[in-house]
From TrEMBL:
<keyword id="KW-0436">Ligase</keyword>
<protein>
    <recommendedName>
        <fullName>serine--tRNA ligase</fullName>
        <ecNumber>6.1.1.11</ecNumber>
    </recommendedName>
</protein>
<dbReference type="GO" id="GO:0005524">
    <property type="term" value="F:ATP binding"/>
</dbReference>
<feature type="domain" description="Aminoacyl-transfer RNA synthetases class-II family profile">
    <location>
        <begin position="225"/>
        <end position="483"/>
    </location>
</feature>
<dbReference type="Pfam" id="PF02403">
    <property type="entry name" value="Seryl_tRNA_N"/>
</dbReference>
<keyword id="KW-0030">Aminoacyl-tRNA synthetase</keyword>
<dbReference type="GO" id="GO:0004828">
    <property type="term" value="F:serine-tRNA ligase activity"/>
</dbReference>
<feature type="site" description="Important for serine binding">
    <location>
        <position position="452"/>
    </location>
</feature>
<dbReference type="InterPro" id="IPR045864">
    <property type="entry name" value="aa-tRNA-synth_II/BPL/LPL"/>
</dbReference>
<dbReference type="GO" id="GO:0006434">
    <property type="term" value="P:seryl-tRNA aminoacylation"/>
</dbReference>
<dbReference type="InterPro" id="IPR010978">
    <property type="entry name" value="tRNA-bd_arm"/>
</dbReference>
<feature type="binding site">
    <location>
        <position position="294"/>
    </location>
    <ligand>
        <name>L-serine</name>
    </ligand>
</feature>
<dbReference type="Pfam" id="PF00587">
    <property type="entry name" value="tRNA-synt_2b"/>
</dbReference>
<feature type="binding site">
    <location>
        <begin position="325"/>
        <end position="327"/>
    </location>
    <ligand>
        <name>ATP</name>
    </ligand>
</feature>
<keyword id="KW-0547">Nucleotide-binding</keyword>
<dbReference type="InterPro" id="IPR002314">
    <property type="entry name" value="aa-tRNA-synt_IIb"/>
</dbReference>
<dbReference type="InterPro" id="IPR002317">
    <property type="entry name" value="Ser-tRNA-ligase_type_1"/>
</dbReference>
Length: 515
């Protein structure tokens, strides 16, 4: 892959209980069945400025205050530890004296105790027990708050990730389509909504009646094309040694949170479909569930609370599943048709690697090779971007996106639209899911990588727009998909076209615009 880089654009010492601040375990309650995350809080304490910078670079404003708060809590915890130690030592002396006063007759540490009456000793012992209970509660609350804050802090950022909000262009895939060169002035481009409506491939009206805005029906050759895309993506990934998995689409909410997917994003918009619970289930503590936004979540959860054999690493899995996104975006040109939807089919890659950068980088590069091979063979003009810190989620240390050119998106991002994404996440997910392995006989945490092999709706939209032939009223089917399309070379037939209520696009002066 061509990697030429082009810039694109203290509390005092009083014994008192605390009110746990920020987002704590009470907000993201972990059910008893969930593994207890093992976060390296010591590393956060030793590098608070680094973690604060990471949060700031990703626009995690609230979380940027958490490293300093963890330091403060740790200092408070140390004070409580010293107080508790002193109280326990005194309590032990009192118990020793009460059990057998004669045995401590020569002990200078209990000189003052011998001068007390037995009732006084018992009163002090009871008082110490109460004070110690308060201190132990404070210790537990301090630890709980540190753990809760640490869970909210995003992963550290790779040195290879561009800082800021500008992506860096790494390479292109395939040659530009005719809209980029001296194509005929009468060249007509149509949106995939127009093409799909004209050829009877989509039914958005029926989906709006049955499910609402953001859903769709694929009909006839479009439904067949979906299966062809899925089977082709699986075939390519399998060729590279990835094992196929058929995962569940409903997962425990705490599994999604452990992978870095929060119920709400930074702006409070709903991102995850939560499964409603009955009051009886909630009262019984039945774990909450949600619909997975990607099979990355269910694949990662597959090895939660498990120790992987080092000989099995890297462990590479590829899955096809339905994916669910509660917030598909505000209505507008960017969200018409298949580009942003609530439910879709996606082929996802997920891998566990040995701890450390070397093997994880190899797997990450292999994911990019698979994505490149798929998009290249589909004939789509794409660009490969190294995504900046502002675009990273909580779990990723590095992310690479591949965007295709859509004729209908000329007014949005110069026609580019994301098709795939690949991320490497170090041990962020495995520490939260307690997925372990052994290195030189010692327990360690594997690294994880994830990437889109193929997201059906957007790839289908790109194929329809770039493969449309205005003269014949048909869409070219890439050769690699034809084995799953009964050998069909084009979709649609002359004379069987519908009247479409959608704009068309023509080239003028080297640009694509509405006709």
């Amino acid at each position: 892959m061509n990697r030429a880089l082009t810039c694109l654009r203290c509390r005092g010492l009083k014994l008192q209980t605390r009110a746990v601040s920020a987002r704590t375990f009470a907000d993201n309650k972990r059910p008893p069945i969930a593994p207890k995350p093992i976060i390296d809080i010591k590393h956060i304490r030793q590098n608070p400025e680094l973690y604060e910078l990471t949060c700031q670079e990703r626009n995690y404003k609230n979380q940027a205050t958490y490293p300093a708060r963890i330091l403060e809590l740790h200092s408070e915890w140390q004070v409580l530890q010293r107080q508790g130690r002193a109280l326990r030592e005194r309590s032990n002396l009192l118990r020793k004296f009460l059990a057998n006063p004669a045995t401590s007759s020569g002990d200078d540490d209990v000189e003052d105790i011998r001068e007390m009456g037995r009732e006084q000793v018992q009163d002090e012992a009871r008082k110490l027990k109460g004070e110690l209970a308060v201190i132990e509660k404070g210790e537990a609350e301090a630890v709980a708050e540190m753990e809760a804050l640490a869970l909210e802090i995003p992963n550290l950022t790779s040195p290879d990730t561009p800082r800021g909000d500008e992506a860096v262009l790494l390479s292109y895939i395939n040659d530009p389509p005719t809209a980029f060169d001296n194509s005929p002035e009468n060249k007509v481009w149509r949106s995939h909504v127009h093409v799909g409506s004209e050829l009877g491939l989509f039914d958005f009206a029926g989906a709006a009646t049955a499910s609402g805005w953001g859903w769709y029906y694929l009909v006839g050759e479009a439904a067949q094309l979906e299966q062809a895309l899925v089977q082709y993506a699986l075939a390519v990934a399998t060729k590279y040694g990835w094992t196929q998995v058929s995962p569940p689409t409903m997962v425990y909410s705490h599994i999604g949170a452990a992978c870095g997917f929060q119920p709400r994003d930074q702006h409070g918009e709903q991102q995850v479909y939560a499964i409603a619970q009955s009051k009886a289930d909630a009262d019984r503590g039945v774990p909450e569930m949600c619909l997975a936004g990607t099979s990355e979540i269910s694949l990662a959860g597959m090895k939660a609370n498990t120790t992987l054999d080092p000989e099995d690493l890297p462990m590479k899995r590829v899955a096809v599943s339905r994916c669910y996104r509660a917030e598909a975006g505000a209505r507008g040109a960017d969200t018409k048709g298949l580009y942003r939807v609530h439910e879709f089919t996606k082929v996802e890659m997920f891998a566990w690697t040995s701890p450390g950068e070397d093997e994880a980088q190899d797997v990450f590069e292999e994911m990019l090779d698979i994505q490149t091979e798929i998009l290249q063979s589909l004939g789509l003009y794409c660009r490969v971007l190294s995504m900046p810190t502002a675009d990273l989620g909580a779990s990723a240390t590095r992310k690479v996106d591949m965007e295709a050119w859509f004729p209908s998106r000329q007014s949005i991002n110069s026609g580019w639209g994301e098709l795939t994404s690949a991320s490497t996440c170090t041990d962020y997910q495995t520490r939260r899911l307690v997925t372990r392995t052994r290195v030189d006989g010692k327990i360690s945490f594997p690294w994880t990588c994830n990437g889109t092999a193929l997201a059906v709706p957007r790839v289908m939209a790109a194929l329809l727009e770039n493969g449309w032939d205005e003269e014949t009223g048909t869409v070219a089917i890439p050769e690699v998909l034809r084995p799953w399309m009964d050998g069909l070379e084009r979709m649609g037939r002359v004379g069987k076209r519908r009247n479409a209520q959608e704009v068309t696009f023509k080239q003028k002066d080297g640009h694509v615009e509405e006709a």
